[in-house]
Every structure is written in C-alpha cells, then in structure tokens.
Amino acid sequence: MAAAQELTPNQYISHHLTNLTASIGDGPFWTLHVDTLVTAAIVGILGMGFIWWVVKDATSGVPSKRQAFVELAIEFIDDQVKGIFHGNRHSFVAPAALTVFVWVLLMNAMDFLPVDIMALFYEHVLGLHNWRSVPTADVNTTFALALSVWGLMIFYGIKVKGLGGWIHELFCAPFGKNPLLWPANLLFNLIEYVSKPLSHSLRLYGNMYAGEIIFLLLGMWAATGLAGTVFGAILGAGWAIFHILIVVLQAFIFMMLTVVYLSMAHESH
After folding, report:
1. Is 207 one of the catalytic residues?
2. DSSP one-letter string for 150-166
3. Catalytic one of 140, 207, 263, 268
4. Does the structure show a pLDDT above 70 at 268?
5. Which range, of 18-32, 34-48, 108-122, averages the lowest pLDDT?
6. Structural domain harbouring 51
7. Does residue 37 or residue 221 have the better pLDDT?
8. Quick one: which of 97, 113, 134, 195 has the most CB atoms within 10 Å?
9. Is 27 left (phi over 0), alpha (psi -120 to 50) or beta?
C-alpha cells in the first residue's frame, strides 16, 4: 500500500473503506464482501472455540485462570438473561446471548489493529489490495445479525402464541379489539417490527464505522510531519483507550436488545 502521505485524504480513506468483494451473480445484490465474511468466521471460531476448549476441561475443584474468566463471563450473561427473560426457553436464549456477545465483541475488537500495518500485511504478504478488518463496520454484517434476531423473534412469537394468536395480536394490540382500531393497531405493529432490526443494526454499525473513520483521520494527521506524528500518536492512544468502552458497550447493548426482543416475543399484550 502507498504511504498515507502519498495519497490524498480522499484516496487514503477510500482505500481503507473498500471491501474485498466477489460476485456470484448479476447485479450488486449478489456481491459478497469476502473480507467481512472471512474475518467474522475466523473470530467467531476462535472465540467460541476458546470457550468450548475451556469448558471441556473444566473442573469442579480450584479453577484455572482461564476457567475462572470464562465462568465469570457465562455467569454475567446468564444473570442478565434471567433479569429480562422469564420464558421457559432460557436454555436457548442464554447460550444465544453468550454467542452474540462474544462474537460481536471480537468483531468490534478488530478495530484495535493498526490500520496501516494491517494494510501492509494484507497487500505484501497476502497480495490483497483491499481488506477491511472490522466486520461490524460493514452494514451488511450488522443487518444480517439483526435480521437473524428478528427472524427468531417472529418464529418464537408464532410458536408460543400460535399463528392465530400472533395475527390476533397484530390487529388487536395495543389499542383494543374494536374492528375500527384494527388498521391503527396493524400500522403500529408494522412500524415496530420494521424499526427493531433497523435500530438494532444501525446502532452497532454507526458506532463502529465512526470509530474506524476517527482512527483513519488520526492516521492521516500522524503522516503530516513531526508535530502531527506526536499529536496523532497521543490522540490515537487516547481514542483507543476510550474505544475500548465503545467496543464492549456496543457488544453488550446488541446482546441485551437480542434478549429483550426474544423476551417480547414470548409475552402477550
């Protein structure tokens, strides 16, 4: 990759925000973001594989540091789920919440990798000109996750209440059963169903994309000279420290909203 000072700001940012793509058909709909898919799969396998490895060798005696860390994470997620979800499918919701939290946290954490160093690695070692390392800074990832939760929400809503009960709720809640209120109830519920995956996905995407942009802007500043290097390094370190909170908080919020939506699917109005 060309050094940051050899590129215009627009070229530098565009280079780092361009995905490695592969087309599997006609039209942009059939374009895969290979870097997003590969990175998400790798961190997901590593994260859940690590938990499986620790749990597989868990002992009832004095736990190792690894086991204590994993037990703390599992108990924390389980307590959060118990505080929100009161249905009889806790055995599914709690592991799903743990999976979502760990996976989103690791995908968010890819933002801590130095963007220019990683670009040099991808280009000169792997021969890839474009590669984005943060899957959650790609709106396709966050929408896919949110739509998966949305699908589960509808699935459990129908399974728990029955198709008739679910449709009845669409037309009769929250304003009442009077037929004159059916259009208002349906419109209200449709807006709710549409807004959930939108807010669920765009909140995570917006925060991670903004964080990625700020790192790129600081990187450009660091390439302007000695003063820029000093101030860019100081501000970059400060932003990285603050970004730790954002990375963890966004994973936590995404996980909590997942539990809330699944809990709402089990409840009747």
Report:
1. yes
2. HHHHHHHHHHHHHHHHH
3. 207
4. no
5. 18-32
6. 9-265
7. 37
8. 134
9. left
